[in-house]
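ugh ok so i messed up the first submission bc i forgot one of the chains. this is the corrected input, ALL of the components this time, i swear. 660 residues overall. if the numbers dont match what u have on ur side tell me asap before i send this to the collaborators (the ones from the other lab, u know who)
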Amino acid sequence: MAFKSGDLAKAYWRDNLSLVLKLLAVWFLVSYGFGILLVDVLNQFTFFGFKLGFWFAQQGSILTFIVLIFVYVNRMAALDNKYDVHEE
Amino acid sequence: MDIKTLTFIIVGLTFALYIAIAIWSRAGSTSDFYVASGGVHPVLNGMATAADWMSAASFISMAGIIAFAGYDGSVYLMGWTGGYVLLALCLAPYLRKFGKFTVPDFIGDRYYSQTARTIAVICAILISFVYIAGQMRGVGVVFSRFLEVDISTGVYIGAVIVFFYTVLGGMKGITYTQVAQYVVLAFAYLVPAVFISFYMTGHILPQTGFGATIAEGVPGSGEYLLQRLDGLSAELGLATYTEGARATIDVFAITFALMVGTAGLPHVIVRFFTVPKVSDARLSAGWALVFISVVYLTAPSIAAFAKTNLINTINGPDQQGVAYEAAPGWVKNWEKTGLLKWEDKNQDGNMFYSGDERNEMVTVDRDIMVLANPEIANLPAWVVALVAAGGVAAALSTSAGLLLVISTSISHDLLKRTLTPNITDRQELFWARVAAGIAIALSTWFGINPPGFVAQVVAFAFGLAAASFFPAIIMGIFYKRMNSTGAIAGMLVGIVFTLGYIIFFKFVSPELNTPDNWLLKISPEGIGTVGMLLNFVVAYVVHKATGDAPQATQDLVESIRYPRGAGGASHH
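and heres the new structure output, hopefully the right one now
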């Protein structure tokens, strides 16, 4: 066991899950939310010549996905360091 | 020089490049692919993953489907990129820490069961096979056009080339070759898009261009491109481009099945097992998505431009139809493949494309759009040839990789490790070749009699992966008490249900394949989402009735949840 105590192991996993859930909430919002379920509502607005919902479905969601992964990479690196379970 | 000659030259040059790199990098490092990729920077690894991932479905087929489906085509864009978020956040780092090479290895060890392992192997073979069946059609489309032969002949030629490409072996497995393939593929995809965007809207970036206003000298100038496309769609009796026609629940289900399937696809997951560190697994997924997005953000713009140009050139600027006698060369060239057909229904000698009874373009295969697009827009011949080379690179790299997965799964995982452990290495190799041969033959048949357009067939593979692997892997990591009985029951129910639904609507009763007959209005492309939910539910219920996984397994799961101590990946 790499952790000094079982409590630390639990806390690390809890922090990890909370980060992942937050990021997945955004993931769901931009694609299934803006791009699919709310598409008709957002399509009433225009964004650089695109209907906004259409833009999220064909461009915005993908751009957000990229940002999400890199945020995850950075936050997890910080988390690994904080709990001292990063790789040598 | 004509397009045909240029195509031979450019396709030939790119092939020579891949082979040269393969030989060069083999001499410089160990021949072992896994070790070779271990020393590769995450950026290059991401690039190689992107080439591995983007197949004929992404390159040839996707933009064409979007061109005809409009907003509904977004399922492919979101589905095939959003899956990388799931991969990076929920799977890749943990599977890397686990330290095995294949998905059946993970399933077999995590669920301490030879049965679970065998089921996983069979699922992996099935998924890869459906995937490759889609590719063969894509290869066929490319060759039929550029050799100016019938589509079936194109598929046969493609199959022969894929077979030799695979038998030459190793080529696909070398990361640097894939980096080169990515560069060819992305360049070939972007160049025509930039040209066309600049011509149609004055924007260099196609991603903003397709939202812009139409430039001087192009029909409809001053109008927003997408608005004009919506207007034309209304006039021609087609579904509104920016709104689509599919039910919301179906769009949701297809997108979900593709995303989850991406995260469960055996040949993609494998790439993340082989990076040196857990942190690299996370980062590689990020870079892979960056490189994939270069193509995926461009695809919807190609779709919108291609659709507008298609309508303009067939129907003419005045929307009265263009005389067949004066048809541009691409129309006649594609007619030779049988993928484009004109019938002069009203006997006026003019072509007309629409969504109602006025339509005279009785066949416009979606899979020709990306390849025909540069010709429709009158781009220079070398651009047309370049796109062909990109299409060949995309289709060959992926299908060769999948064939290797199929043949090693059958000969190694299934025969050697499970059914007949006593066979010699020579016999194993023999069966690997037999398996590759059978897979090629079967997929050639599907290439000639496709159950759908390339991207649609490939979508079935994702549905199957979503319904079988994804729940088993997710529960394997995030629910440590899940036991083998539950996981096996879940996988079986998921894959049998999904496969049954697809076979029923695509092969048994294709005439019933309409939204009214679908379960909850979900199409066969999206049914993997339901299969996945069934898998989760069945696994949970069965697990509750049969008790927790043993303590040793639960400890193992605990240990993959943090990065420290990740050794090199090991084979079995």
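quick check: Strands of chain A lie at 46-47, 50-51. that seems consistent at least. The helical segments of chain A are 6-37, 39-42, 52-82.
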